[in-house]
Design goal:
This protein is α/β, with parallel strands linked by helices. It has one domain: Maf protein. The protein is 34% helix and 27% strand. The longest helix is centred in the N-terminal third of the chain and has 17 residues.
Length: 194
């Protein structure tokens, strides 16, 4: 079976880098879907809905192509920690995550000519205890901007992490193990997988 062109419904440089790392050819397209995070929303349902919304907003432009939508959030004690609003919000998030284990939950939607799959992946991440100085030093990097949970594990944020259980690339922003499995099952050999 031949590989269909893949459209990534995202402007995320991390997601593009992961697909490049996996050797999967793609084109990135900005989704038109507008995210809304209602208070008290179930985190799994939220990321699955956002991933599907992003993919569906691009799928109309993509006849005969695969469309991939992904959404990622951080969850601690049932509370969703999305992208922080400003430096004070980021400091509060990092303070809440310090010395604790949180979950990084990603929704993934893959739409093809005759199918749609919506799934999710969860990775557990434990932060080391952080002093106020640790938090301030990390905030000074600016990496927290636009990041769920106010950190980027693929950058200086790696120094905040003590332990990880699950798919590392999921924490970066794309549940690669899930994507590889789906592509290998549906298109054996087509993407150099399966």
């Amino acid at each position: 079976m031949s590989a269909l062109p893949l459209l990534l419904a995202s402007t995320s440089p991390q997601r593009r880098a992961i697909l490049d790392q996996l050797g999967i050819s793609f084109e990135a397209v900005a989704p038109t879907y507008v995210e809304h995070d209602p208070p008290g929303a179930d985190p799994v349902a939220l990321v699955r809905d956002h991933a599907a919304g992003k993919a569906r907003s691009v799928a109309g432009l993509a006849e005969g192509q695969l469309v991939l939508g992904v959404d990622t959030t951080v969850v601690l004690d049932g509370r969703v920690y999305g992208k922080p609003e400003g430096r004070a919000g980021a400091a509060a998030m990092l303070g809440a995550l310090a010395g604790r284990t949180h979950e990084v939950v990603s929704g993934l939607c893959l739409i093809g000519p005759d199918f749609e799959v919506v799934t999710h992946e969860t990775t557990r991440v434990t932060f080391r205890p952080l002093s106020p100085r640790d938090v301030e030093a990390y905030l000074a990097t600016g990496e927290w901007e636009g990041r769920a949970g106010a950190y980027a594990i693929q950058g200086r944020g790696a120094a905040l992490v003590e332990w990880i259980e699950g798919d590392y690339l999921n924490v970066v922003g794309l549940p690669a193990a899930v994507l590889v499995r789906l592509l290998a099952e549906r298109f054996p050999g087509a993407y150099g997988l399966g």
